[in-house]
Amino acid sequence: MYFVEVILPLSLAKTFTYSVSEAEFLFIKKGMRVAVPFGKSKIYTALVIEIHNNKPTLYEAKEIHQILDDFPVVTEFQIAHWIWIADYYMCAIGDVYRGAMPSGLLLESETLITKKSDSFVDESLLSDDEYLVYEALQQQSSLKILDITAILNKKNIFPVIQKLIDKNILVLQEEVQESYKPKLVRYVRLHSKYDTNEGLKDLLEVLKSANKQKEIVLNYFQLSASEKKPITVKRLVEAAQSSPAIVKALVDKEIFEEYFLQEDRINFSGKGREDDLQLSNAQQFAFESVKASFKQKAVCLLQGVTSSGKTEIYIKLIEEYLATGKQVLYLLPEIALTTQLVSRLRAHFGNKVAVFHSKYNNNERIEVWNQVLQNADKAQIVIGARSALFLPFQDLGFIIIDEEHEQTFKQSDPAPRYHARDAAIVLANSHQAKVLLGSATPSIETFFNAKSDKYGYVEITERFGNVMMPEIALVDLKDKYFRKKMNGHFSDTLIEEITTALTLGEQVILFQNRRGYSPIIECITCGHVPHCEQCDVSLTYHKHKNQLRCHYCGYSMANPTLCHACSSIDLTTKGFGTEQIEQELIAIFPNAKIGRMDQDTTRGKFGFEKIIDSFKNREFDILVGTQMLAKGLDFDNVNLVGIMNADNMLYHPDFRAFERSFQMMTQVAGRAGRSEKRGKVIIQTYNPNHNTIQQVTNTDYNGMYKEQLYDRQIYKYPPYFRIIKLTLKQRDFDKLKEGSMWLYNVLSQNLNLPVLGPEEPVISRIRNEYIRNIIIKIPQNTPIGSTKKTIQKILNSFEAVAQYRAIRVTTNVDFY
Questions:
Q1: Range of 211's domain?
Q2: Is residue 267 over pLDDT 60?
Q3: pTM score, two decimals?
Q4: Which residue, 194, 329, 622, 718, could crosslink 508 as a Cys pair with Cβ 3.0–4.6 Å?
Q5: Does any domain span residue 546?
Q6: Does 535 fall in a domain?
């Protein structure tokens, strides 16, 4: 009797045993995929994690359908790591497997398959089976796996589909085809032969009779004198109120030369730091200190002020690890950051850099997966968001976690709800690799670990090139409103500073951590506020689409012209988001070009690139955005940053609100003055004396850390306690109330620990499901493993109670 133990890509905590023949038993290795029947008629792609001879006692083992791989596609390191994640974060191993694998490697019987629209197919190269599938897709737009089984009249169809996908003929349904190509902007400059005074006389002579051409050339001189930046054809045509055809005529006459600038991401404007990386003294010292720290400890925290040049230190360290033949993983919190970083690393390491994140389509992800698995030259350095942690590394030597304080490293939904920083440290441990955590504002837990000597610690206190830290000025909104010195949501101080920056040809970043036009529309007569039908939240007004939207479930309705409760037409908006700031800017600065970067404008695979490129190419003068702007982006022409309202971050019902506000404001402020000139940051607030805002103004990280640590100890929060949050959801309010009370009582009786709840969160209903939270606090010295086992047993018995079976419980370990 021969058996394999497999994981299924379903939310199931158990593994399953299937029987195989002797030949299959000898061929199969751990980490290969096999297609297996599960349930009555469904087929899934399962992963083999063990080969054995033990017959299952509780059920009759079914036979596998077929083996899908010739060699393992998942390494033993990965399997061990996934089992640790499932165990530590209290989720099903099937969830981890499903979350970790690119969906293109997880064909299921329900997967929809369509023909690629724009591909040319040479039918003579297709086998009979492949041709039958191809022909069927000519007749109808999509097929399910079960349909293809019927067409070919055989069970063994996954290899046929895989070959057609590899040949670029089929695609899986969930892909969206992207048509974005890197943007090429057409610029013009005067031909070099007209640079001298003599040349200019000749030029006027040539253009004597061509008035329209002369008009454009004169406009070119005016623009180049006033704007001191490259001039696009579009800008020139607008200024001269002319047509592109005349510019083309000037190019043909060799008066103008045209040139194209493609995504400015690779050129690190004019400083030439890329070719021969020279570290400053402070960087060199930090570089040596990190190396020394790695001799004693596996993890090191590098705390460097914003723009201190941490990336250059990372590059030097990566060089050393590549020289030993090891792979390097570089984790970033936000896809937007990979854009800038990839180009900097590619400029330095050439083609050794691979990128992996969720905006890649299936084929691209599988390609990167295979390159990492084969330890190919193309994937010596992998840059990615948190999902890159799951790639099949063969010989990992070094992990960099940049901006390690970011909350986006923690996955909230769906399971596995892992924290990429903590999971990366465990992964590094199994590979005997080193981890470098980088941040200007480390999370309190990490800083606590560094201070208590668990991690190494290196600090850089000066910016690269000795550029000064930005000057931070506070504007008291109460006072400005009282003195009537506000224009919309802009104080006179902020308007003056923006005007000065624009006059000098500098760019401005404005930060408002809320998208949309306004979060509330209220009736002045009766006070009614339109709410989402499915969630307990007010609808956000989006002026551009003239609709109200729910940011939780996506429900939308047309903007009402009268109150739904009392039919009054006196409706007013309260609060403001990025869209409203953009509208106000257009009114105040009609000549400035304004861009907006939030979730509404960065949809699609290259959404971030388009906006970041345009801003770097100086097509925008002012960029308004949400927290996407706060992450380590590098713009060298920004000397002014405005924070529109610092208060709405401070007053969140969250024990991390002050820490997060400090980090967010410091990071946004760090975008200012990154080249020669000292930057300026204007923070508008109703509460300028608030401790956290004062700490940001004085760049006092240690002050914030001590104050927060004191509070955390008193109120039993991390780093002194670990938190497990149980969230219960159910459509029936009374049943949920009863069930959550039952669970709370059993937990309190069986755990000798603080258990809080069951409480209604601020938003207590989403998508028509009511929500209750229970929080369990575990002191650092209590063994967490046994506590989790007790919690899991209680959750199992909760599921066994018939009337509570419909209540969904999700577990979030190390809830951040």
A1: 184-262
A2: no
A3: 0.81
A4: 622
A5: no
A6: no
